Amino acid sequence: MSLTYELSEIDSIAMQLLSKVKSKTLLFYGEMGAGKTTLIKALVKALGAPDLVSSPTFSLVNEYQTSQGRIFHFDFYRIEDEAEALDMGIEDYLNTQDWKLIEWPQKIERLLDQDVQKLEVSVLENGLRKLKFC
What we know:
By secondary structure, this protein is of the alpha/beta class. Helices cover 25% and strands 29% of the residues. The chain has helices spanning 10-20, 36-46, 82-87, 90-94; strands at residues 2-5, 25-29, 61-66, 69-75, 99-103, 117-123, 129-133. The model has no long low-confidence stretch (mean pLDDT 93). Pfam families: TsaE. One of its GO terms (cellular component) is cytoplasm.
C-alpha cells in the first residue's frame, strides 16, 4: 500500500498512517531530503505532543510526552555501527510500549524485532511525496 501526497497534506497523511499501522515501532527509509523528519513531526503532533519537534541527528534520540505516553524519535544517520546504538541504550527504548519512530533503521536492523512497520518515503519527479508501507 502507498499514499501520495503534497507537503500541505502532511497532517492528514499522518492521521491516515496512524490509523493503518499495527506496530508502535515505525521504521522510516528514504534518501536524505525525502521528508522523513517532516512526516515524523506531523506524527508527533497527531499523537498529541505539544513540543516543537526537531531532528535528533546529533543527540540520536528525542523524547516527547503525550497524555497517553512517550514518543521516542531516533535518527541513526551518523552512527558507524550497531555498537553505538547499544551504547546509547537502544535496547531499553525498544523494550517499552511507547512509540518509536526511527530514521535510518538500516544502521541497526539486526537489533530490531519483527513487530515493526517499515515505511519508505520518497520524492516523486513532480515534487509529490510517496509513502510506501513495506
